[in-house]
Automatic annotation (TrEMBL):
This is ABC transporter permease. The lineage of its organism: Bacteria, Bacillati, Bacillota, Clostridia, Peptostreptococcales. One of its GO terms (cellular component) is plasma membrane. The chain crosses the membrane at residues 12-37, 57-80, 92-114, 120-139, 160-177, 183-204, 216-234. It holds the Pfam family BPD_transp_1. It comes from Sinanaerobacter chloroacetimidivorans. InterPro entries: MetI-like, MetI-like_sf. CDD domains: TM_PBP2.
């Protein structure tokens, strides 16, 4: 029943977007906003090209997310469990976190070149701080009595992490990932405009320079579907790994 509701809301959201798009197309009367139906037909005509660009963007995002999790989860737990480390690194995190990370793209390009490494590094730089702070907040939410209970049962450090800390931080990890993926997709759109042959950001900007607005809106539409696809994966993983969380 819950999956049906989610699917229905996504269908409603898609058609709401199409309706708003159609209204803008009819009211503005400009060739820069193509008709939704014509754009959809055009998208089917370049489906293979859209798929190649989509896979390139998704691969970059997934690589960045995977590396960020490997860094962010241990880092956040360390900040949450060790007060000395927290006092040492928290001021740095609070200073870096509000800075728009896309501003570091020229630096990463100079350090790592113009290829995928600089783009993935940019997204890691965006996601990892969100992960560290989310995990740290999850550790902070554990009540002291829970630690005492674990100690009273003579739980080992491994058991404390397995049965107390990990379940406590998982909801925060998924929440942080949702925020991070939205921001990283926006940043990837910007990063893929430099020295890239494949990627949705490259496709959209390339179509814009060619004044091919149907192709441009096809890319925008696919970018929305990529975000929807990634959020769907997160929802399923969260439902599997955190069944105790009520939605």
């Amino acid at each position: 029943m819950k999956k049906d509701k989610i699917a229905n809301s996504q269908v409603i959201g898609f058609f709401s977007f199409i309706i708003i798009w159609e209204i803008l197309y009819l009211s503005l009367g400009t060739h820069t906003i193509p008709a939704p139906l014509e754009t959809l037909f055009y998208s089917f005509g370049i489906l293979k090209e859209l798929l190649l660009h989509s896979l390139a963007s998704i691969a970059r995002v997934l690589a960045a997310v995977g590396i960020s999790l490997m860094i962010g989860i241990p880092g956040g737990i360390l900040l949450g469990m060790n007060q000395w480390i927290r006092r040492l690194f928290s001021p740095l995190l609070y200073f870096i976190y509000p800075i728009p990370k896309v501003a570091f793209l020229p630096v990463f390009m100079l350090l790592f070149g113009l290829g995928n490494q600089s783009k993935i590094t940019l997204m890691i730089f965006i996601i990892v701080f969100q992960m560290i702070l989310s995990v740290r907040d999850g550790v902070d939410q554990i009540q002291p009595i829970h630690h005492k209970v674990m100690k009273s049962y003579c739980a080992t450090a491994k058991q404390q992490y397995r049965y107390l800390i990990l379940p406590a931080i998982l909801p925060q990890v998924f929440s942080g990932l949702r925020i991070s993926i939205g921001i990283s997709l926006a940043s990837l759109f910007f990063a893929e405009n430099y020295a890239t042959a494949y990627g949705i950001g490259y496709l959209i900007m390339s179509a814009w320079t060619k004044m091919n607005y149907e192709e441009m809106f096809s890319g925008i539409l696919v970018l929305g579907f990529i975000g929807l696809f990634l959020f769907q994966i997160l929802d399923r993983l969260e439902a599997h790994f955190t069944p105790w969380v009520q939605k």
